[in-house]
């Protein structure tokens, strides 16, 4: 388990950029945290670190944003507005769980039964100060931590 503290939105993006270097095609990252905890900022940093050149935005309304990267594709999923297992099943998330993609899923706890056992869990929570966030990373293979 890796535990880090971010003291600004920029630091959260930077933590995501650093974390991205441990990812490989086929990885699924479950981003867990309350509203405003920094999930999208962290995901933007991950995408930047993976070589995505497009502007990374929250997929809250589009549900899934797809970005080309040098290795293949990044899927950035937001399940906040999804209600019920039926809607989640209709998304076809499993199509992104292969060696062509790295899949980042915000509000991933809503699809816990669909996530591959080897997924990486990143939990973001509010810290003591307004802009402070705690980032906890679990499930990353030791060789890549």
The first-to-last residue Cα distance is 8 Å
* Low-pLDDT residue spans: none
**Into which percent range does the helicity of residues fall?**
10-25%
Oligomerization state of this entry? single chain
Whole-number count of domains:
1
Mean pLDDT: 93
CATH C-level class is Alpha Beta
Q: According to CATH, what is the topology?
A: Rossmann fold
Q: If classified by CATH, what would the architecture be?
A: 3-Layer(aba) Sandwich
Overall geometric form: globular
Q: Could you state the CATH homologous superfamily?
A: P-loop containing nucleotide triphosphate hydrolases
Question: Hey, roughly how much beta strand do the residues contain?
Answer: 25-35%
Query: In terms of structural class, how would the helical and strand content be classed?
Result: alpha/beta
H/E topology pattern = EHEHEEHEEE
Q: Which strand order do you get reading across the main beta sheet?
A: 1-7-6-2-5-4-3
Please describe what this structure looks like.
This protein has helices at 9-20, 39-49, 84-91, and strands spanning 2-6, 28-32, 64-69, 72-78, 101-106, 120-126, 133-138. The chain has a single domain (6-140), classed as P-loop containing nucleotide triphosphate hydrolases (Rossmann fold). Helix 1 (9-20) packs across helix 2 (39-49). The protein contains three helices and seven strands; from the N terminus they run E-H-E-H-E-E-H-E-E-E. It has a seven-stranded mixed beta sheet, covered by helices on one side. With 145 residues, it is α/β, with parallel strands linked by helices. The model has no long low-confidence stretch (mean pLDDT 93).
């Amino acid at each position: 388990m890796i535990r880090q503290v971010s003291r600004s939105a920029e630091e959260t993006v930077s933590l995501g950029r650093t974390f991205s270097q441990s990812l490989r095609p086929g990885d699924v990252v479950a981003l867990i945290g309350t509203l405003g905890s920094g999930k999208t900022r962290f995901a933007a940093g991950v995408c930047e670190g993976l070589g995505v050149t497009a502007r990374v935005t929250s997929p809250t309304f589009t549900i899934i944003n797809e970005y080309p990267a040098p290795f293949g594709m990044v899927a950035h999923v937001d399940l906040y507005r999804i209600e019920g297992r039926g809607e989640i099943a209709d998304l076809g998330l499993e199509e992104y769980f292969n060696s062509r993609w790295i899949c980042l899923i915000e509000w991933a706890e809503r699809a816990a039964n669909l996530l591959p056992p080897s997924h990486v869990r990143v939990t973001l929570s509010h810290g003591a100060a307004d802009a402070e966030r705690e980032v906890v990373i679990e499930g990353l293979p030791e060789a890549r931590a």
